Amino acid sequence: MSTTTITTVVFEIGNVLLKWDPEKIFHRLFGRDDFKSHPLKNVIGNEIWLGMDRGTVSKEEAITRFSKSFPEDSAAIAEFIEAVPDSIEPDHAGIECARECKKRGLTILLLSNFPEYAYKKVREKHSFFSIFDGEIISYQVKLLKPEREIYETLISNFHLIPEETLFIDDREENITGAQEVGIRGIHLTKEKNIRQEVERLLSKQ
Fold first, then answer.
1. Residue 184: which of 204, 203, 161 has the closest Cα?
2. Residue 137 contacts residue 46 (beta carbons within 8 Å)
3. How far is residue 86's CA from residue 184's CA, in Å, rounded to a whole number?
4. Residue 108 near residue 83, CB atoms below 8 Å
5. How many CB atoms lie under 10 A from the CB of residue 103?
6. Where do runs of H (alpha helix) occur along the chain?
7. Has residue 3 been placed in a domain?
8. Most Cβ neighbours (<10 Å): which of 35, 134, 143, 181?
9. CA distances from 184 to 9, 19, 32, 93, 187 (A)
10. Domain ends where: 65, 87, 109?
11. How many domains does the chain have?
12. 144 and 105, same structural domain?
């Protein structure tokens, strides 16, 4: 039996609660299969894109800067950015896992890298956000995972005990960042069932 009780479960949004698949969005918008060779592939996750996540670059500024860097593809890039909030679909397994944690009496929180324009739209669109007890979204605090400071902000804002906190994320580096401040983690890959992984840990308590 584990000597430490998990009292809080923290969920990433992308690929945990909402499905984030840029290649699929690209194909749906443009009917093309050349995403991996299109400039958009290099736009996602670059300095300007991360600036949107950090809350230091607005959507409008990002589109303007991308249009200067990729003038021939500026219209497609702008259309893609605008389409993101309406193109990401619920991941029902992750949402149900969050509901089950809530029913157990656990505190459930959000910790995610997300630009303001997109987060506000998806939060309005999906009712499941209302079940969470709190959130740290990157643009709100001008910090990004896996920076140590964002995990420290999470701990401080919600008075968490790190070893009693479980974080679920689809990126290994984000789990490593959480573990470096003492938070337990589940690296959620496509091969793993989120409900089984969480239940495996909770059943040991």
1. 161
2. no
3. 32
4. no
5. 9
6. 22-30, 39-43, 47-54, 59-69, 74-87, 92-103, 116-125, 138-141, 148-157, 172-179, 194-202
7. no
8. 143
9. 9, 23, 40, 20, 10
10. 87
11. 2
12. yes
- Read off the pLDDT of residues 72-103 as tens digits, 9 standing for 90 and up: 999 999 999 999 999 999 999 999 999 999 99
Same domain, 73 and 147: no
Q: How many CA atoms lie within 13 A of 121 on its CB side?
A: 15
Please identify which residue in the block is written with the tokens 């194909």: 27
pTM, rounded to two decimals:
0.94
Note down the domain range covering 132: 8-20+89-202
By the 8 A CB rule, do 16 and 185 touch? no
What average pLDDT does this structure show over 165-170? 98
Same domain for 12 and 56? no
- CATH number at 110 reads 3.40.50.1000
106 and 158 in a common domain: yes
Backbone angles phi, psi at 188, to 5 degrees: -85, 105
Residue 103 lies in a domain: yes
